[in-house]
Amino acid sequence: MMSNNQGSYSARFELDTRPPSDRLAREHCMANRVQIEKIDRHRDEQVRIEFPTAKGAISAIYTVSVFHNDDADLVLLGRKIENELQNCQLSNNACKGEVIAQIMIEDLDGDKEAEKRGELIEHLDHYGQNRKLVVIAPHGGEIEKWTDNQAEYIGNHLSSDRVSLWICKGFSSKDDDDAFERWHITATDISEKSFPKLNTIFGPKFEYSIAFHGWGKDFICIGGSTASANDGLIGEIKDAIKNALIANGSNIDVKDSDCPEGFNGNNPKNIVNRLGIKGIQIEQCMEAREKYHDDIAQAVADVIRPRINM
Ligand SMILES: [Zn+2]
User: Fold this and answer.
1) How far does residue 138's CA lie from ligand 1's centre (Å)?
2) Who contacts 250 (Cβ-Cβ below 8 Å, separation ≥6)?
């Protein structure tokens, strides 16, 4: 079977080393407009890049945030895979590889294989016409550990005709802890055009949407849309999680205000708010995820259950 080759193009990758004020965001890249449109991608969508290293090909996903009209093959990369790029096997002094329209490979047979191959895999559980609740973990696998388990926990503890699940799992390369660098796309940038399963549940918004995340800070922050705040839902979830932690002997701090800018889940562009009217974003420290992932998910399920069963 010959691929028609329209899904990718040969590129030359360069790290964006312009002064910080002009520099692309870490997960953004700049590419030639005609080339991107030829592979049927558009600005603000994700592409996959691939280049050779001594240890084999390395892949990562980027958001195309800016176009240029210079050399057709030039792709300027934000710094998220700076280290990996240093290992690129150069040809004619340049890092040459591919820009690929599909961010996920097609022949993956489940999570085990995705893990073995250090790949990215997307899952969707969605039955019938559910528009009540969608629970998401866009950064599961080794990107933000345990967040996928939490989404699955809620899916297993609420009736499946009222909860849909969308989960992405990204895994590290062998001997490298690089899942975050290679597969993380910030929640406000995630394009349904680049995640085929996510795309199938776009349409009328769900009544509720909940996103599980992990971060490097040492506390938990509950954020969400204005509709969730006005409804009291953010506060309710915060109290439920705090009580669950106390009951388990943990004093991890749980906040629902003064969350750091960019992590308070109130941006309408955040994927959780583009999916649901009452969006909730849960940012969690590693200790909370590692030790209390089920307790936290249970607390969230208990708050949301009576609301979706009405
Ligand atoms: Zn995240």
Assistant:
1) 6
2) 287, 288, 291, 292
80 close to 44: Cβ distance less than 8 angstroms: no
DSSP 54-120: TTEEEEEEEEEEEEE-S-TTEEEE-GGGHHHHHTB--BTTBEEEEEES-SS-S---SHHHHHHTT-E
Domains parsed from the chain with CATH numbers: 8-100 (2.40.40.20), 111-308 (3.40.630.100)
Rounded to two decimals, what is the model's pTM?
Answer: 0.96
CA distances from 14 to 18, 21, 73, 97 (A): 11, 18, 11, 11
Task: Give Cα separations from 27 to 17, 52, 94 (angstroms).
Answer: 14, 20, 21
Picking from 3, 17, 181, the residue whose alpha carbon sits closest to that of residue 100 is 3
Separation of 263 CA from ligand 1 center, angstroms?
Answer: 9
Amino acid, single-letter form, for residue 47: V
C-alpha 54 – ligand 1 centre gap (Å): 30
> CA-CA-CA-CA torsion for 178, 182, 183, 188, nearest 10 degrees?
120
Please give the distance, rounded to the nearest whole angstrom, from the Cα atom of residue 6 to the centre of ligand 1: 31
Contact assessment for residue 181 and residue 139, using Cβ atoms and an 8 Å cutoff:
no
What pLDDT digit, counting tens, does each position of 95-141 carry? 999 999 999 998 899 999 999 999 999 999 999 899 999 999 999 99
Residues paired with residue 58 on neighbouring β-strands, in sequence order: 51
Please state, in angstroms and rounded to a whole number, the distance separating the CA atoms of residues 118 and 195.
18
220-229: pLDDT as tens digits: 999 999 999 9
CB 220 within 8 A of CB 241: yes
